[in-house]
Amino acid sequence: MKTFGKQASGLRLERMRASPRWEGEGFKNLYPALPDLRSGPMPRIGELLCGQGRVPKAPLPAVDPRPAWARPPETGFRATWLGHSTVLIEIGGVRILTDPVWGERASPLGFAGPKRFQPIPVPVEALADVDLVLISHDHYDHLDYPTIQALARTPVPFVTSLGVGAHLEAWGVAADRITELDWWDSVRVANSEVLVTATPSQHFSGRGPGMRNTTLWSGFAVRSADHSLFFSGDTGLTEEYADIRAKLGPFELVMLEVGAFHPGWGDMHLGPERALTALELLGGGKLLPVHWGTFSLALHPWDDPPEQLMAMAPRRGVQLVMPRLGEAIEPGRVDRVNPWWRALAGLERSDDAVEPSLEEHDPAIQWPLD
What is the DSSP pairing of strand 253-257 with strand 286-290? Predict the structure, then answer.
């Protein structure tokens, strides 16, 4: 299927094989997973197919960010969470979009797989002024086929991990608009002082049969003269975050994945508690939690990630940045959290069954997809 993307070949594949991360027929995590990250068994199919509270019974509060985007940020640094791991960052006079997903399903199939329960607050066509798109890795909830097709019709350049450019080219993005980075590689955003550096993460990749770990996965550090941020992509807890702090920190804003956690996935996803530990390894900074509030990709209730963070962050001295979807915020001016998601608490958690996972339709596609 075209939505699977395309395997790398030629000079692209030669460069991938030259990476220290390449071993045998694919990429690997540089260091073994930390001990005890998996504290339970992998979820069973029946658990993935149904459960209580995994989607809200009504859309979450959201705002249209376009009026705010029409004005430059007063501090020179602004972030707009658009859902899941999609964030529009305004820094150093440029606009950077992370892992853009406008599609209805985190899936290669139009009729099955995790379905969006939260509308995105602005159409993709409203993103004409984006200067760069960052793609952390090739899973369906981070590299979205219909979104890339839409962005391919614009002149926006892409920065991504090794090998992911093959997917982008197959979907219509010109080769000269794609920059692929290995860990610790850097690139400057055109006509700016903003530097983007790919960083280690503890994860995996793959979109279909035979594609497991055939592209790299990364986080990204972004720095201007006055501001800095870190975006995790998807990751388990790794001591390499201390290396990131030493080489690229400190960070004013840290965007870490907190949703889709499970005891059996501790070596590939953080979840709220380990996100706070990762933040400490990175040297602190204000925490903008991502990878929640859009798709049901695990067994926990949809509002577990923010509620756990609200309980734990004060005890660990962490300042949370938790805007509504579409709310453009300047991190330097955030000093408290308004738990806006609790407006749905009176509706109770949904008892509806969740859409079937792709394992029911294609056993070659491994869970979790994200």
Answer: parallel
What pLDDT shows up at residue 355?
38
Tokens 């705010």 correspond to 68
- Determine the 3-state secondary structure of 142 from DSSP: coil
Tokens of 129: 């002024």
What integer pLDDT is reported at residue 353 of this predicted model? Answer: 37
Q: Considering the entire predicted model, what is its pTM? A: 0.90
Q: Find the distance separating the first CA and the last CA of the chain, reported in whole Å.
A: 19
The answer to whether 250 touches 283, Cβ cutoff 8 Å, is yes
Q: What is the pLDDT of residue 261?
A: 82
CA distance 352 to 261: 20
CB-hemisphere CA count at 13 Å for 159?
A: 26
DSSP designation for 37 = -
Question: DSSP for 319-342?
Answer: -B--PPBT-EE-GGG------GGG
Q: What is the pLDDT of residue 112?
A: 87
Neighbours of 63 (CB within 10 A): 16
C-alpha dihedral, 194 to 195 to 201 to 205, nearest 10°: 80
Q: Hey, what amino acid is at 106?
A: A
Q: Indicate the burial class of 45 (C-beta count within 10 angstroms; 0-12, 13-18, 19 or more).
A: exposed
Q: At what angle do helices 240-248 and 271-281 cross, to 10 degrees?
A: 40
Q: What pLDDT is stored for residue 73 in this prediction? A: 97
Residue type, 118: Q
pLDDT of residue 30: 84
The ranges of the chain with pLDDT < 50 are: 347-370
Residue 321 near residue 306 (C-beta atoms within 8 A): no
SS3 90: strand
- The three-class DSSP label of residue 260 is coil
Q: Which of 11, 136, 43 is nearest to 85 (CA)?
A: 136
Query: What is the Cα–Cα distance from 237 to 274, expressed in whole angstroms?
Result: 6
- Is the peptide bond preceding residue 250 cis, with omega within 30 degrees of 0? yes
Q: Which CATH architecture has domain 2-28+76-335?
A: 4-Layer Sandwich (3.60)
pLDDT reported for residue 96: 98
Q: Rounded to an integer, what distance in angstroms lies between the CA atom of residue 277 and that of residue 281? A: 6
What whole-number distance in Å separates Cα of residue 340 and Cα of residue 346?
Answer: 13
Residue 241 main-chain phi, psi, to 5 deg: -65, -25
